[in-house]
Amino acid sequence: MLDRINQLVEEIKALQASSAEEAEQLRIKYLSKKGLVSQLFDEFKTIANDQKREVGQVLNQLKVLTQDTITALKETHEGSQAATSGLDLSAPGVTLPLGSRHPLSIVKNEIADIFARLGFNIAEGPEIEDDYHVFTALNFPPEHPARDMQDTFFIATNPDILLRTHTSSVQVRVMEKQQPPLRAIFPGRVFRNEAISARAHCIFHQVEGLYIDKNVSFADLKQTLLYFAKEMFGADTKIRLRPSYFPFTEPSAEMDISCTLCGGKGCNVCKYSGWVEILGCGMVDPAVLDSNNIDSKTYTGFAFGMGIERITMLKYQIKDIRLFFENDVRFLNQFKSAY
Ligand code: DAH
Fold it and tell me: Are residues 21 and 133 in the same domain?
């Protein structure tokens, strides 16, 4: 029996298979219930006891060798089958395309980053507000047209509750909680009852800024906004302040920047004036400070507010505000940015 085992060992060592099926045939030939190796195990039961130890050992080795050899043959062919079927197991995985940030988020983050360099924190307030925080505490007289149903979305059951029309309401929320020095911006969504067109939407975004401390002057406001304009639109950008009126600032101004498209020469974006308006600003009215428990004899401050859509449209030369709210990926995909 030993001879036959050794003969089989040699046979197994020389085994070859040209396909996985052939290897399977070999498994059946040697290892199935009636296979050659299994037959030897049957015979093993009949040999003399004093031989069992020696024969048993070699027989077991034969079995292990046969199993290993046939498994190895199968594996080689399974691999090559994958290769010939066009499946490259070493190829890198398919990566999913990366999304991109919304252009309004990119510009909001960039604005926050610029003001962070000047020491401005970020705060936020509620979108559903009351008359007090949106108007009264900001010195809007009771009959001011901004309170008119035309501009403001009120909650039907309670005219005191409304959707904020500007982020200036967050100024009030912050002043209520904190005494100066106070230096922060307030980005957020605002709502106005306006007809939707290429230039206006009933939902848009603003960033409000507020700086209150001892000795804050109009020169500080001007320098802060000049820095912002140059950082946002390029070092060649010029600013121009025009006197204006807001109930909560005195004096008030509107700021223009030199046209981002023609650089000031005149084009259809700036309506051939060379300038485009980007924000409202001014020195916080002492009445606003006092009604929010900040002593206007000790402190002064400036404030400003800008529309994020407007800044984004100027920066990227986007002609229709509605594009921001359609979420068409062909539009959104064009904005790749570090912000
Ligand atoms: N809240 C004003 C608006 O929505 C913008 C504005 C103007 C904000 C002057 C200010 C400011 O803080 O000082 O039109």
Answer: no
